[in-house]
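Example 9 (inverse folding). The structure is encoded as follows.
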């Protein structure tokens, strides 16, 4: 099984980069949803191999609902969210960021 080094919102403060911590602080300010009873939410940054394509300061939240359905939400450093990798890449293109290798 792949070791993905999960960085949850509660455990991130001592292991995440300063940029990741700043992003998570902005995300917490914007989140208004209440976690479903029994649901799980874990944050990852670009230090995890699966998400190494993310720019520094960007994080992805993997939400697993009680039904077992898992989905991802990507956050930029300001806390703005994106639902898909394609939306993230489009935002980078709109900002003039050139991505050479994914």
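The amino acid assigned to each position is listed next.
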């Amino acid at each position: 099984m792949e070791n993905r080094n999960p960085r949850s919102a509660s455990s991130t403060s001592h292991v995440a980069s300063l940029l990741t911590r700043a992003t998570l602080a902005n995300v917490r300010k914007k989140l208004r949803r209440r976690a479903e009873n029994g649901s799980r939410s874990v944050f990852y940054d670009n230090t995890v191999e699966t998400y190494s394509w993310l720019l520094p300061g960007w994080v992805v939240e993997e939400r697993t609902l009680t039904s077992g359905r898992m989905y991802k939400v990507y956050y930029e450093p300001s806390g703005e969210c994106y639902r898909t990798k394609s939306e993230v890449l489009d935002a980078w293109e709109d900002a003039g960021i050139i991505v050479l290798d994914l």
